[in-house]
Amino acid sequence: LGSSQASQPSTRFRESFVAMRRVTFSLTALDVRMVPPGPDADDTASAPWLAAPAAKVPVVRLFGVTAQGSSVCAHVHGFRPFFFSELSEPAAASLLAPALPGSEQEGGGGPCSVGRRAEAEDAAPEPVPLVGPTAG
């Protein structure tokens, strides 16, 4: 396989990655919002697989708490074409149950409903290691 420019991370991406540090917190809720692309945060807004630049891009908001008790709201940009977060089984069941067909709490929107907020009420989620920007 030959290497193409599209498969190589941009210099800006590498610089941003170096400037970030690891943040660990317990994920308690998440949602997805469609927002106008940021100037540097959403390179995929003009990705080669799109027919035209995107007017809005998805941003996943992760809500949680650190071991020290600080509240966290992490905005995740540029994750297309997919986003992955590891959850404990109880947390995953609690988050997905309302959206899955046949569940007692069936919401009918499917597990990828945009703009829908999912709450983990009964589960005690395990900490989820994330990479995020350092606080100035």
TrEMBL record:
It holds the Pfam family REV3_N. Residues 51-77 form the DNA polymerase zeta catalytic subunit N-terminal domain. InterPro entries: REV3_N, RNaseH-like_sf. SUPFAM superfamilies: Ribonuclease H-like. Gene3D superfamilies: DNA Polymerase, chain B, domain 1. Residues 98-136 are annotated as: Disordered. Transmembrane segments: none annotated. This is DNA polymerase zeta catalytic subunit N-terminal domain-containing protein. It comes from Alexandrium monilatum.
